[in-house]
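We store amino acids, tokens; thus:
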Amino acid sequence: MKRILGIDYGDVRVGLAISDELGLTAQGLDTLIINGSDKKFIAGIRKIIDEYKVEEVVIGYPKNMDGSKSEKTNKVDELIPLIEKIGVSVHKWDERLTTVSAYKTMRELNISQKNKNKVADKFAATYILEGYLNSISHK
């Protein structure tokens, strides 16, 4: 079976999650620190794709709450062809409220404020990937 990589893109930090080989569960990976560098982003994504033999990527698509595109949505649109050049298919996933859900989970788990920034992106990427996996399992 194939593995799927979930991405929660941010200008500084990128949350990552990987599916199991059956495509049933999502597990958060270490956050990728890119500090605005597309080269660091693509190099980091390529490394994960090679390491886990990823065949598909699902990337959070950050629309505004009214469904319109944002500046970050346009950035994700620019990055998708760069990811596809690595040799994987890329799917957009509406990520509205994933960060809110991530922070809610962290509150419930009593994760300290100091550690929230370290894990928020990982949780958000996991929610993005879980949403996608649930959608394809019901087809």
